[in-house]
Amino acid sequence: MSKDETPPTRRRRPNLGFTLLELLVVLAILSLIAAVAAPQAMKWLGGAKSDAARVQIENLSAVIDLYKLEVGTYPPSLEALVEKPAGADRWNGPYLKKESVPKDPWGRDYVYRLPGEHGPYDLLSLGDDGSEGGDGENRDIVSWQ
Known about the structure:
The chain is mainly α. 14% of the residues are buried.
């Protein structure tokens, strides 16, 4: 290269990546969003289980009432809705589409009491904690309210 010639200009490659600082800022923002949104999402999920239990109890109550209309008495147990009990001559079941009584959204059996303390029968789910009483997600979902 002679003195009069200028050195060839170097072509700069465009910046193809992110800096470590940029990545850390994005991670911090995502962490803040997750910290705020996660508790709310868990609250909605828990509320959905309570709502599902309420709907199932209403459906089971309607089926129990249909059983009484056809047989003349309330079923001795929830299993009588899928299998004919002894002495139920006018049984026209099964009264449920499935071959078994559904579990509550927490995976436990519904509590069925005959006679009931609040009506001819009581039907309830014990909520998330599986014991009577409680608040929030531990609250019982009942057929008489």
